[in-house]
Design goal:
Blueprint: H1 3-23, H2 27-68, H3 70-73, E1 90-94, E2 98-103, E3 108-118, E4 124-129, E5 133-141, E6 144-147, E7 154-160, E8 170-171, E9 182-183, E10 199-201, E11 207-214, E12 223-231, E13 236-244, E14 256-266, H4 272-277, E15 280-285, E16 291-292, E17 299-303, E18 307-313, E19 317-327, E20 330-335, E21 344-355, E22 361-372, H5 375-379, H6 396-414, H7 420-462, H8 469-483, H9 491-510, E23 530-538, E24 542-546, H10 547-566, H11 574-591, H12 596-617, H13 622-634, H14 641-662
Parallel strand pairs: 1-10, 7-9
Antiparallel strand pairs: 1-2, 2-3, 3-4, 5-6, 5-14, 7-11, 8-10, 11-12, 12-13, 13-22, 14-21, 15-16, 15-18, 17-20, 18-19, 19-22, 20-21, 23-24
Length: about 675
Amino acid sequence: MNKQSITGLVVIFLLLIGYSYWKAPSKEEIAKIEKGKYEAFRSQQQLDSVVRLERATADSLATVEAIKNPERVIDPNHPFSASLHGSDKTFTVNNGVLEATFGEKGGKIKQIILLNYSTYDSLPVVLFDERYTKFSAGFFAQNRMINTEDCYFECNILGVGGNSTESNVTASSSNLTESNVTASSSNLTESNVTASGSNVTVGSGDSVTVSMRLYPNGVTDRYFEFLYTIYEGQYMMGFKINVAGLQDIIAANTTFIDLTWNEQIQQIEKALQVERQNTALFYKPTNDDVDNLSETRSEEERLTTPLRWISFKQQFFNVTLIANNNFLNADVKSVEPANKQALHVKDLGATIGIPYQADHKQSVDMRIYAGPNKYNIVKQYDLDMERIIPLGWGFFLMQWINRFAVIPVFDLLERWAINYGIIILILTILLKIVLSPITYRSYLSSAKMRVLQPEVEQINKKFPKKEQAMEKQKAVMALYKKAGASPMSGCIPMLLQFPILIAMFRFFPASIELRQKSFLWATDLSSYDSILNLPFTIPFYGDHVSLFALLMAISNLLYTRMTMKQQSSTNAMPGMKWMMYLMPIMFLGFLNSYSSALNYYYFISTCFTFFQMWLIRQFVDDKKIHAKIQENKKKPVKVSSFQKRLEAMAKRQQEIAKNAGRR
């Protein structure tokens, strides 16, 4: 690559940057666009509310009509026929970090919104949405399948945690007269709920327990119940399934209640294909390591061993169902979209067997986590949930680097409110300092090999024939041994650095700390930094131009050229030279849609390598190395017993070959 080529590339980059800034919308325009998107989202929510209200009105009219005709309400052949009609009223709990909406239809969570996060297009992050999620229980009763999703539950506030004399849980005054939510009389004197309402806010140190009960026809002392407990400031909520007095209704041969959980994962991040590759169903066998279904293809599996939890994991968020006493079995599946251009990520599903015994009352304790894949948050639960975060768990060295070096540095510098681009820069400098002895040894080894190259060429001329390859190899190795050099000494330092490169490759795209954090022209360090959106798609590259990926590729090409110049001019492996030049181009296509933080790290890491090489050259002189090698040649070479055995084996092979040639 000559000076003209480099100058041309620099001019192109400057033009691209100038064009992107020229065409970039102003802050006012960006704010207007984001406001429009948010208003569109809220409008859709209001439209959904209107639709639900219309449905509720229709259900209410149907219920009134059913009351006029009792035979339509109580069907003696259907134990829950009275619960098949109703109005799907909702109840919302806000605990400061999430907002959970419950509905009487199905007695389920209709929606979970994370309050401190937004999507790539500035909309709220919705993890649990009734439009794309099915969460219901099923069991046989009186020769028919009962699905809780078809039934209307009764919603009650059973109690509120906390002992504060002042109310830390407040109910909205809206819809009080029509609210379907009632407070249990047993806790009214100590409860922090001052009124019944459709919206409740959980205050500091408190919790709210919401009961959803399904009663058999005309009976209130027997029920099927979903019980939810929401804690202030927690992404983890309590979840119970209670069955009381239904032993004469549920089929006598029932040993399991099927808990069905299916979800069509919706796009949250900018890079859909990357998000798809990082979305999967994970599960934790009780006596084994965390496992998962394939992240790149459709897969189904029947799990017959006890399970601790099942998780629908997305790139930066997850919803996990946790059993306090293990799930005994589950059928799980992950389905890739048939059309890769589909807007949803993929479909995940699990049918879990909840053990059931025909007792008067039975309770199954569980928990639900709905929140970010943040290492320090999920680690605190001591459930191995942190293993859904791709930190290189398959190789101990990679996960140690991320857990005990990278994450602590990020946490420390994050407290100082430093820009994440600067944090990555500091992290790179620290890693380069730690690796500097290895870099020095690698350079010194390559310098020794370079100095010895003329003597190696003489040996090649001395043994030009193919049948002399063994003798030539022996002479070269003897030269290296006398000089105190080794071809492997340059490879070993590179191998030691390789786990760090892979650890960074795993960490940056999975780090929620970098999500939607900007640096220079990159608006989101967890996604690609597009400076130019193309009107077409280039195969193996994409439909945009990532500047950090370009800079990474160019810096690696320059580094490759520099190392090639330092190495021998021999043509022993001419194809390897072009392969070394081709690799940065391949990485450009592969990493163009990856995290800009990753490309930024690789770019500045290569730049610091240039600086280290320049610095080492100031202290390493080829003439001094040559002189030291000549001194080493004069010293007697100690031959190890292992080397003696190798030489003896080589001599025997040569003798066998000579005898075979004579015959």
